[in-house]
């Protein structure tokens, strides 16, 4: 692993830790933006109106943005606001904008700026006119992860021959693109390209976009997506969600990442089992996404999606693969805090709700047997369970008091 890779890895783990920290006194509700991506000038011009749920009482507001960002104006209620630019960094190539909360009216803040795409230093996301990818790693929009997750709505102007893919609902009316994300998220990923090849799979609910996959890899991804979707559809019943956007590249990046209903997947020379497991987890979220992500109850999303990915791989590759995945899970949960009522501030929150949640389901399956477990999973999905207390009640009703007691105990470990 070279130095750059190492730096990237450290940055990514810092981000996943920060993702778990939410300061409740200070949170952002929504971003409403208009952006213009000028490929010839390699520039983004953007205006974001940020709506807060609550403003800090005595602290300052701090937003991080790319160091090349040229702030045109910051305002609230049409009044220009004074701000400070600080050299403080959240990542390696951004800066902080500091604003006094006293200047903010109606909890709304508007920031207009431009940002040079040539100045992106992150090797994974440098300017590429055939596949330009924006996300929090490029610091392209003003963000402070401590302010929590937010909804967003963005209108985007891009060159006429380009297409745009993103998380959420994307529509296009004569070159005018609109992105709406109603599930609270902590990132705004956008990819634009003049060369997207797009295929629709899994009864139109999953779209795969790429520019340069060889036909063998494209087929492997298409088959895996279809077969995993079908398996869960058969096991759990109809999915409650809408859609998944899968953007696949072969840039030899050291990373893939997933956001709500969106995966940016890097495959190496071929589509590996590791790539497949990331994909399977995200497909799992088409069923397991009903629960609030703002607290520990999120284990009902993450733990279930993770265990679903393990079941998907067991269905495809058999018990040997399953045993290996369970051993990995056992290794991962060592030293993790109990997920029960785990505070968002705990830095191991995301790992605990994902892996301890999945392990809890493994313990349940082992206790009641595969067939009963499969039926029970289907009931959990169909009853639209959104709280652990309702989940435990369902366990009691369907599987008996002993099983409920067992799970309750395990959950506190
Ligand atoms: Zn997940």
Structure description:
The chain is an alpha+beta fold. It folds into three domains: 26-192, Sandwich (Immunoglobulin-like), CATH 2.60.40; 198-271, no CATH class; 296-411, Neutral Protease Domain 2 (Neutral Protease, domain 2, Orthogonal Bundle). The chain has helices at residues 3-18, 215-236, 273-284, 299-317, 319-333, 349-368, 370-382, 388-399, 401-411, and strands at residues 27-38, 43-54, 61-66, 70-76, 79-80, 84-86, 94-99, 108-116, 132-134, 150-157, 163-166, 169-173, 176-185, 190-193, 197-201, 206-210, 244-249, 257-259, 262-266. It has an eight-stranded mixed sheet with strand order 5-4-8-2-1-10-13-12, with no helix packed on it. A hairpin with a 4-residue loop joins strand 1 (27-38) and strand 2 (43-54). Helix 5 (319-333) packs across helix 6 (349-368). It is globular, with a radius of gyration of 22 Å. The model is unreliable at 1-11 and 13-25 (pLDDT under 50).
